[in-house]
Amino acid sequence: MSDSNSQTAASPVWWRVPMVWLVVGGPAVVVLASFVTLYLAISHPDPVLPTMPVISAEGDEAAKNAQATAQAPAMVARNHAATGVR
């Protein structure tokens, strides 16, 4: 009986065990970082980018060409990703 009492008296308290801080510290840092990220997202929102105007069927031919030119890099990348050929 004296052996079990000596073992419990010799064991350190939980906050002095380094492994506990590794187990608890990682998630605590992640939670803290998420609150910092939330604060930054709320305090500095991204500006709204202007969209391209919708061109009607009887619209200006130069405006249609400008819109097609603006979308050309996206179309090339999409086609390249889909087929592997430019």
Average of pLDDT: 77
N-to-C terminal Cα separation, in Å? 81 Å
Q: What is the makeup of the main sheet?
A: none
Helix fraction, binned, reads 55-70%
Structural class, by secondary structure, is: mainly alpha
Shape: elongated
Radius of gyration: 31 Å
Strand content: under 5%
**What sequence of helices (H) and strands (E) makes up the elements?**
HHH
Outline the low-pLDDT stretches. none
| Count of distinct strands | 0
Work out the helix count. Answer: 3
Question: How many individual domains?
Answer: 1
List the helices and strands and how they pair.
Blueprint: H1 2-10, H2 18-43, H3 61-83
Please provide a written account of the structure.
The structure is a single chain. The longest helix has 26 residues, at 18-43. The protein has helices at 2-10, 18-43, 61-83. It has one domain (2-83). It is mostly helical and 86 residues long. It is elongated, with a radius of gyration of 31 Å. The mean pLDDT is 77.
